[in-house]
Amino acid sequence: ETATPFLSVNNIEVVYDHVILVLKGVSLDVPRGGIVALLGANGAGKTTTLKAVSNLLHSERGEVTKGSILFDSVEVQSLSPNELVRRGCIQVMEGRRCFAHLTVEENLLTGAFTRVDGKSAIAEDLERVYGYFPRLRERRGSTAGYTSGGEQQMCAIGRALMSRPKMILLDEPSMGLAPQIVEEIFEIVKDLNVRENVTFLLAEQNTNMALKYARHGYILENGRVVMDGEARALAANEDVKEFYLGIA
Ligand code: ATP
């Protein structure tokens, strides 16, 4: 665990529209093969942090104005979002960005867009995704927009898997889903982590669930990390319980 972090965010500031300071010096590390939770209330800056890492802020008129972000020892800001995907870092957006009018399988295939290897490798990976998500296999021919919320979230993660990622930035996978479905999705995250060594940075408002699956957590408040530690220690911390778990 003393090795160079796979992802290292160092004291970044992010500004929207040139004037709105949203991240005020955020630092965090994600070890290779880790699951790290980024926690905090709505508006704390979780999505902004993930978008800074995947270099997607420009389209939101956002900019990293200070600090550095290293993924696999390369400065992220020198790479395009597509180059980052090719290097193994991909974001799954909040709100399950599936193409509603495409079938589940067509959605998954669009995830292979950065791949240069052949069709058989892509077909193999499709099988691999269906192995993790049997529900997606059942729904492969269905129009994505007509599948359930949980299936759409699975489809979004499956689509990301088609790029053969080493690291997934997962933005609020639990949003709007029933607890049982959330657990099903988190179990698959754990499987991917254990069996394929996929590293996860997981932004969640569902602190309880996230801390069950993550090994380490960071708590963001108003654009700053106010606490971090081992997931088990955070889950047992009285302040965390009071403010984020609702069980004082
Ligand atoms: P959420 O649960 O809503 O995703 P979050 O913790 O991910 O919350 P962010 O979405 O990163 O928080 O938002 C952090 C702050 O930045 C909020 O105050 C939000 O209003 C502001 N913000 C987000 N996007 C923009 C934008 N494009 N322009 C201006 N301000 C923005």
Automatic annotation (TrEMBL):
The keyword Disulfide bond is assigned to this record:
no
What are the recorded Gene Ontology BP terms? L-amino acid transport
Q: InterPro entries of this UniProt entry?
A: AAA+_ATPase, ABC_transporter-like_ATP-bd, BCAA_Transport_ATP-bd_LivF, P-loop_NTPase
Task: Identify a single GO molecular function assigned to this protein.
Answer: ATP hydrolysis activity
UniProt superkingdom:
Bacteria
Q: Residues in domain ABC transporter?
A: 7-247
What PROSITE patterns is this protein classified in? ABC_TRANSPORTER_2 (PS50893)
Claim: Nucleus is one of the keywords in the record: no
List, alphabetically, the Gene3D superfamilies matched. Answer: P-loop containing nucleotide triphosphate hydrolases (3.40.50.300)
The residues that cross the membrane are none
Q: Which UniProt keywords apply?
A: Amino-acid transport, ATP-binding, Nucleotide-binding, Transport
A Pfam family recorded for this sequence: ABC_tran
In the record, the note on similarity to other proteins reads:
Belongs to the ABC transporter superfamily.
General function of this protein: Involved in beta-(1-->2)glucan export. Transmembrane domains (TMD) form a pore in the inner membrane and the ATP-binding domain (NBD) is responsible for energy generation.
Q: Which PANTHER family match?
A: ABC TRANSPORTER SUBSTRATE-BINDING PROTEIN, HIGH-AFFINITY BRANCHED-CHAIN AMINO ACID TRANSPORT ATP-BINDING PROTEIN LIVF
Q: What is this protein called?
A: ABC transporter ATP-binding protein
Q: What is the lineage of its organism?
A: Bacteria, Pseudomonadati, Pseudomonadota, Alphaproteobacteria, Hyphomicrobiales
